């Protein structure tokens, strides 16, 4: 339970830090932290981000990982925990995958006979 709370707090604070405090010119698109997976010993955390401009994702990930120590320092000031984990940013493809699945499903046509078979 404590680890889940730490993950949620880190996610909330990182979203705010990235949108308001990070001034890297490579981060020009909307970036959202979708999940945080902190190790049980609180020494490291995988941070999954959704990047709206897919063509800029490599540069954005480099910028985020380059600023990880800076963001960790800000988290240390904002969170009331003894150890703030080292951050490693990874691209979260779940939004793009969901959009692909939705596009495929919207292209399917279901006839009345197919609907009756499902019952």
- How would a crystallographer describe the biggest sheet? 3 strands, mixed
Would you list the SSEs in sequence order as H and E? Answer: HEEHHEHH
Overall mean pLDDT stands at 89
Q: Could you give the order of strands across the largest sheet?
A: 1-2-3
Number of helical stretches of at least 4 residues: 5
Question: Roughly how many Å apart are the termini?
Answer: 41 Å
Strand content: 15-25%
Q: Which geometry do the CA atoms define?
A: elongated
What's the β-strand tally? 3
Here the CATH topology equals: GMP Synthetase, Chain A, domain 3
Number of domains: 1
CATH superfamily: K homology (KH) domain
CATH class: Alpha Beta
What is the SS-derived class? alpha+beta
In the CATH hierarchy, the architecture is: 2-Layer Sandwich
Kindly provide the radius of gyration, computed on alpha-carbon positions and rounded to a whole number of angstroms: 19 Å
Helicity, in percent?
A: 40-55%
Q: Give the uncertain stretches in residue-range form.
A: none
Give descriptors for this structure.
single chain; 119 residues; alpha+beta; GMP Synthetase, Chain A, domain 3; 3-stranded mixed beta sheet; 5 helices; 18% strand; elongated
């Amino acid at each position: 339970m404590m680890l889940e709370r730490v993950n949620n707090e880190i996610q909330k604070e990182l979203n705010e830090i990235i949108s308001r405090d990070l001034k890297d010119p490579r981060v020009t698109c909307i970036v959202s932290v979708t999940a945080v997976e902190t190790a049980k010993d609180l020494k490291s955390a995988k941070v999954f981000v959704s990047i709206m401009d897919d063509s800029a994702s490599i540069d954005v990930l480099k910028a985020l990982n380059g600023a990880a120590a800076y963001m960790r320092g800000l988290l240390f000031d904002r969170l009331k925990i003894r150890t703030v984990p080292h951050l490693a940013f990874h691209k979260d493809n779940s939004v793009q995958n969901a959009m692909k699945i939705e596009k495929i499903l919207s292209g399917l046509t279901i006839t009345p006979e197919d609907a009756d078979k499902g019952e």
